[in-house]
Amino acid sequence: MKINRTWNQYVVKQENKSLVFNTIRQNSPISRADIAQQLGLNKSTVSSLVSELINEELIGEVGPGESSGGRRPVMLFFNNTAGYSIGIDLGVNYILGVLTDLQGNILEQEQVTFDNLTYEEILVHLNEVIQKLITMTSKSPYGVIGIGVAVPGIVNKEEKILLAPNLNWRNISLKEELENQFNIPVIIENEANAGAYGEVQFGIGKENKEIVYVSVGVGIGVGLVLNNQLYKGNNGFSGEMGHMTIDAHGAKCSCGSEGCWELYASEKALLQLAKRNKIYTTDPYDLLDHMIQLAKNNDSVALEAFNEISKYLAIGINNIINSFNPEQVIIGNRMSAAKKWIEKPLLDSINNQSLWFSQKDLKIDFSSLNTHSNALGMAAFSSERFLKVTISGNEVIRVK
After folding, report:
1. How many CB atoms lie within 10 A of CB 172?
2. Are β-strands 94-101 and 84-90 bridged in parallel, bridged antiparallel, or unpaired?
3. CA-to-CA distance for 313 and 190, rounded, in angstroms?
4. How far apart (Å, rounded) are the C-alpha atoms in residues 99 and 332?
5. What is the mean pLDDT of the chain?
6. For position 400, what pLDDT does the model report?
7. Which of 59-63, 107-111, 177-181 has the lowest mean pLDDT?
8. Which GO BP terms apply (predicted)?
């Protein structure tokens, strides 16, 4: 019984420490007395836990606050620069990396573009981007606490990339490669899940609990937030809706199926529409920007291309709305830059096609983070994991 009692006391202490820390994090600056009042803990318990957090350099003290009748209280703040996180959006033809503090503020960023490279060649670029961001990091107690990489493919619970069809990757152990290279904890996640998390934490999805994030780039991925939790399915494979069939006799997809949604409503579709109308760019990555520029000049081909893509985009979104009845659908990734020409025909199609009761209290929005949802989501995943491990009392190695 003594062992159980000791263990239970330890668990309660760690839970209380987590509550105190999160209260400071969410309400900085705040006094010890206010923390005790909010959480219903006695002042000595709060004072002891605050001392631990100060010693761990996760929080700090700032000048006195306003007095309510006695001595002015010492205010506490979350030390969001105790460490830094790297978030990577690894796209089909680009890598976007951000360096953030523990609060998700972007401090530095790096981007490279490429076309049709092998895994080994992309890995070289990825290592270079990460190394550049590491060298930009300011001195801090914990240094770079994690690297998160969003990939356009299926990632299992062990964070192995089983299939990324648009990259032609199968059974890739990127997590192991990067941890061996940098000796920093790495998280690998599907890019749409990362984008959904980024929007919930920092973007237009903050206020809702039932969210569908539709990532439209070269392919299409879907991140699901159900009852305020990121839904990943039984084995972590949920959200591969870019590969749901919308045309039983359609073209062959890189996944091996036919008539997949992303063949009709993504940058891949835009490329085919451009080729059909003899519109070319030297770099396929620049095609979307080129088509947007043409649309700004009222080019009929570009306007019709975006109109067609928006209608196919609506078909898939209608299927999702009827399946999940979300509060909010967020359209993100690179195609969100074409909002001006996509939004109206998309909304018209959804209003005409989806079930009337599914449209009740439904919001259709475009990402407020634009192309940064995925990278910010991955940086947040790494920061949350670091803080959880640190607050739980497990050993964390500090950077000297």
Report:
1. 20
2. antiparallel
3. 20
4. 21
5. 89
6. 29
7. 59-63
8. D-xylose metabolic process
The model's pLDDT over 185-197, given as tens digits with 9 standing for 90+, comes to 999 999 999 999 9
CA 253, CA 296: separation in Å to the nearest integer? Answer: 31
What does the pLDDT read at residue 360? Answer: 76
Residue spans of the domains in the chain: they are 9-78, 84-195+374-392, 204-368
Per CATH, 9-78 and 204-368 having the same topology is answered no
pLDDT at 304 over 90: yes
Q: Identify the CATH class of 84-195+374-392.
A: alpha beta
CATH 3.30.420.40 fits 204-368, yes or no: yes
Q: For residue 138, what is the DSSP state?
A: P
Q: What is the DSSP string of 64-86?
A: E---SSSSPPEEEEE-TTSSEEE
What residue has token string 């990632």? 155
> If you ran DSSP here, which 8-state letter would residue 240 be given?
-
Q: At what angle do helices 191-202 and 373-391 cross, to 10 degrees?
A: 80
Q: Would you give the distance in Å from CA 308 to the centre of its chain?
A: 28
Rounded CA-CA distance 383/373 in Å is: 15
Amino acid at 255: C
Residue 174 near residue 149, CB atoms below 8 Å: yes
Please state, as a whole number, how many other Cβ atoms lie within 10 Å of the Cβ of residue 55. 9
Helices marked H in the chain: 2-27, 32-39, 43-55, 119-135, 174-182, 191-202, 262-265, 267-276, 287-296, 300-324, 339-353, 373-391
CA 346 to chain centre: 24
CATH architecture observed for domain 9-78: Orthogonal Bundle (1.10)
Q: Considering just the CA atoms, what is the radius of gyration of the chain in Å?
A: 24
Whether 108 shows a pLDDT value over 80: the answer reads: yes
Alpha carbon of residue 1 to chain centroid: 45
Per residue in 13-56, pLDDT tens? 888 899 999 999 999 899 999 999 999 999 999 999 999 999 99
Contact 374, 216 (CB under 8 A): no
